[in-house]
Structures are given as structure tokens and as C-alpha cells.
Amino acid sequence: MNSSLTKNRLVLTKDKHTDFKNSLLDIWNQLEIPKESDESWRKFPIASVDWKELQFDSENIATSGSEKEYEEYSLPEKTIDSILSALLKYTPKDYFAYLSLVTAPYYEIILLDEGESIFSFEEEGDEPRHSVRIFYLQKGKTNKTEIQLQNFHTSENLHMSSSLDFFIAEDSSYLEILDRETSDMDLYRFRNVCLLTHSDSNIKYHYYPIGGFRSKLFLDAHLLGKGAEVTVDGVSALGGRNLKDLDMEMFHHADHTTSKISYKAIVTDKSHHIFTGNLIIPPNLKKVTAHQESFNLSLNKKARAEANPKLEVLAEDVSCTHGATVGDIDEEQYFYLLSRGLTPEDSKALLVTAFYGETIHSIGFSEEVKLALETRIKEILVGGK
Fold first, then answer.
1. DSSP string over 216-272
2. For residue 186, what are the β-bridge partners?
3. What φ, ψ does residue 308 adopt, rounded to 5°?
4. What's the pLDDT score for residue 384?
5. How far apart, in whole angstroms, are the C-alpha atoms of residue 149 and residue 147?
6. Mean pLDDT, rounded, of the chain
7. Helix (H), strand (E) at residue 57
8. Mean of the pLDDT values across residues 83-89?
9. pLDDT value at position 5?
10. Where is 129: in which H helix or E strand?
11. What residues are paired with 165 via a beta bridge?
12. Going by DSSP bridges, is the β-strand pair 9-12/304-313 parallel, antiparallel, or unpaired?
């Protein structure tokens, strides 16, 4: 991880907050490594994981902070209490989310400024890595943040990483996030992302994961105040034997809230992509709008893509839609391009680019950034053509 700390990157050590740590451990002691019989893990081959090979011992978890001294920068006590309360309340009861909370030597709080930000986080080596990051945007501010999360090593050993990332947008704020996740081909990645939007705040989260061996993502968005909005989109591009299992949920807690999930996946070789989306709207809410869509493109008969849309709508004054598609390249379009003189490779590349291009070009970042995303995806799917 990039360990440089500035006035906007602060360190919070859980050991200094006794009540929080005790509550955290009370929950942790009730959790265990998930099984394939658990609904959220039934598609992930968790039973086949060799934890010893990953150098992970579930019976010997260090719950105290590192002996290394970290400076805890000054924050208003009210803000710290609010952040710790949010961690306890909204972190899903997932084993790996709490593994990150109890084993991370410290939590990094990133105070987002007005304007644009770029943050790089790097993980190296074969030992298990655990981290917690909180991105915090104050009331009335606007920020666009690009996150570059990279994991790499030099051996051929399987290894693992768990992380928990919170994005908190206070009242009347706007936060747009581009999450560029890059993993080496031997990595088991277990990741939880939580989005918290308060009254009249707006979060747009763009997710672009590349590489890895096996990965499981839980993304939970909570629309906490009237007028809150959340949009989640992105593209997964999978090759080789890569498996990605994405589980995204939108929780509406207030009237006049709006959410949308629009996610695309392209699979080739023997890769496998699973998308599960859920919209949760409790009774008595009014004027709620929620949409969910998943589009999947398969480039090889041995590749698999699955879409599992869900709705838990208990209110009446709502507008909700959902949809999902899984298919191959459109043969009619393919043969039309061939008839216009394009080669089979160029025809395929053009149709694949058209499939995900609209999603990339809708993000509010520079053309240079968008081109870099396109290049990464092309390298995996069509050899950069």
C-alpha cells in the first residue's frame, strides 16, 4: 500500500477506541469462513480453497493493531464517532469484511477535497493482505476520485487479499469514483465496498476489475436520506480461468431516493462471471426509483456468464425495473461487417468494443483515462486489436 500520509490521509487505530473494538470482536466471534451452502457463496468454489497454501490460518487471527507506531491525526471526535458507528452499522456480516476490520493494523481515512483526486494502493508478496479504507466527503462538496488498486508478486504461489472500502458522502455532496482494480493471476481477492449517501447527496461508482484467479465482491449501497442517489456501473473483462463473483445490493432507507445498477461482463477462454443484483425497498417509503440491469457477452463456448437479478420491494409508491441478458456476438451484425470488407478479427473486435464502449464513455473522467480502460479490456479479450 502507498503509505505516504498527508493532511488528507489520516490514520485511525482501532485499539485506541475500546468500545468500538469490543463491539467489533463481539460480531467477529460469531462469524466463520463461509460455506458453499450459504446463499451468497453458492456459486463460489469456497470449499476448494486451500487455506494453508494461501498462508492463512483461521484459528490464529491477530486482532490487535500492529506493534509499529502510527500517528493518529487529529479529527473532530464527533466525526470519528460517526465513522466508527457507520463501520459497525453498515459493514455486512461477511466473514472477510470483518477479517479486514479485525486484522488491518490501522484504518486509513481519506478526506476528499473539492475537485479531483487520484489514489494508488499497492500490495506485494505472497502473505495475506488485509486493509480498511474510508473515503469521506464533507457536506456540500464535489469530488471525482480515481482509485488504482494493484496487487502483484513474483512467485507462482496462490495468495489472498481481503479489503473493506467505505465511501461516505455527507448531505448535498457529489462523489464520482472510478475504481480500477488490477490483480495478478494467482490472487484470491475478497473485497467489500460500502457506499453511504445522505440527504441530497449523489454517488456514482464505476468498477473496472482486471485479472486475478478467484474474486468475490460484495457491494452494498445505502441511500440514507431524502433525495439521495446512487449509480453503479462498470465492466468485467475475463480471460483464462478467471472467476469473478459480484454481489451488489441497493438498500433504500428514505423517500425520494434513486438508484441504478448497470453492469456489463465479457467472458472468453474458460472464465466464469457471476452477477447478482438486489434492490431492497422496505414498506412505507414513497417516490422511490430503482433500476437494475446486467448485460453479458460470451466469446467462447467454454466461458460462462450468469446474471441473477433480485427485487425485494415492499413499498407501493415506487418505480422499479430489472433486466438481464446473456448471449454471444450477434451473427447478423458480424456477417454484415464481414460483407463490408472487415476481417473476422476486426469484426469481432469492433462488436466487442461497441458492447462495452458506451459504459466507458459515460464516466465523467478524461478521454485519456477512458482510452486506458479500453486498452486494458482489449488486451484481455482480443489481444489489443
1. EEEEEEEE-STT-EEEEEEEEEE-TT-EEEEEEEEEE-SSS-EEEEEEEEEE-TT-E
2. none
3. -130, 80
4. 41
5. 6
6. 91
7. none
8. 95
9. 42
10. strand 129-137
11. 133, 193
12. unpaired
Question: pTM higher than 0.85, yes or no?
Answer: yes
Query: For residues 301 and 289, what is the distance between their CA atoms, to the nearest angstrom?
Result: 37
For the chain, how many helices (H) and strands (E)? Answer: 6, 17
Q: Which three cell numbers stand for residue 367?
A: 478521454
Separation of CA 232 from chain center: 10
Model pLDDT, residue 2: 35
Using CA atoms, how far apart are residues 356 and 113, in angstroms rounded to an integer? 31
* DSSP per position, 158-182: -EEEEEEEEEEE-TT-EEEEEEEEE
Q: Which of 225, 240, 10, 175 is CA-nearest to residue 107?
A: 10
What is the rounded (10 degree) CA torsion for 207, 9, 127, 93?
-60
> Cβ(36)–Cβ(134) under 8 Å?
no
C-alpha–C-alpha distance, residues 90 and 11, integer Å: 20
Place of cell 448535498: 172
Q: Which residue has the cell 479531483?
A: 116
Task: For 185-218, give one letter per residue: b (16+ CB within 10 A) or e.
Answer: ebbbbbbbbbbbbbbbbbbbbbbbbbbbbbbbbb
For residue range 333-342, list pLDDT tens digits in order.
Answer: 878 788 888 8
Q: Which residue type does 189 have?
A: R
Q: Which helix (H) or strand (E) is 205 found in, with range?
A: strand 202-211
Q: Is 142:169 a contact under the CB 8 Å cutoff?
A: no
Q: Is the pLDDT of residue 27 over 90?
A: yes
Residue 168's nearest CA partner among 93, 230, 117, 218 is 230
d(CA 197, CA 228): 6
Cβ atoms 190, 161 nearer than 8 A: yes
φ and ψ at residue 30, rounded to 5 degrees? -95, -5
pLDDT at 4 (0 to 100): 37
Q: Which among 222, 233, 221, 240 is positioned nearest to 275, based on CA atoms?
A: 233
Residue 260 CA, chain-centre distance (Å), reads: 15
